[in-house]
Design brief:
eight-stranded mixed sheet; 8 helices; about 35% helix
Length: about 220
Amino acid sequence: MPLVTDRHLWLERLCAQTDGDVAHVGCADSPYTAELLRSGDLLHARLVRLARVTGFDVDAAALELIRHTLADERLVLADLSDHVPEQDRRRYALVVAGEVLEHVPDGDAFLRGCRELLAPGGRLCVTVPNACCPKIGLRALLGRESVHPDHRVYYGPRTLTRTLDAAGLETAWMASCFPPGSSAAGREIVNPLLRGIHRVTQGPVGDGLIAIASARSNASSIAS
């Protein structure tokens, strides 16, 4: 399995290389929207400089914060698990759902909504925390679980592939990844060690997983 050393830089390159419209689902990164806008680290603000990107989110207040900074960009308030706006169906060459799937109550319904955004031949990019990351095991040995308070589920490579498959999506590529930046002392020590282990094992050693998938030809027959 490949290892991506910076998730955000990789997503920026993916969007820059996409020929067509891009949908960024979970664009507000709530509840950290204001902080990320101030620091210049909001992923959506970086992606709109590289491609034609429409942002989707369920947090109306967070979307308003983004509108104050990115006044000319299109933002859509929508819960894709429940409803996909008609004007956005089958429109996007790339749908990016970064660090969202682990937050939603119904992962299958959410992914079916993302699938509805895809234009023919379009690709879905999903990123999630990696349940197989060695750091999780080390924390468990110390009796600790470090997890975002809104996370509902863990995904490993196999469970992520099965979840995508259940939503009518075929996984074409998968990698593990490190989060953006490496300022924390722990990352400066542990990540180089994990990179060394990866050179030997090629295993899913990163904090997260990145999957690229496309709609299966029989996806329309899957109940939504």
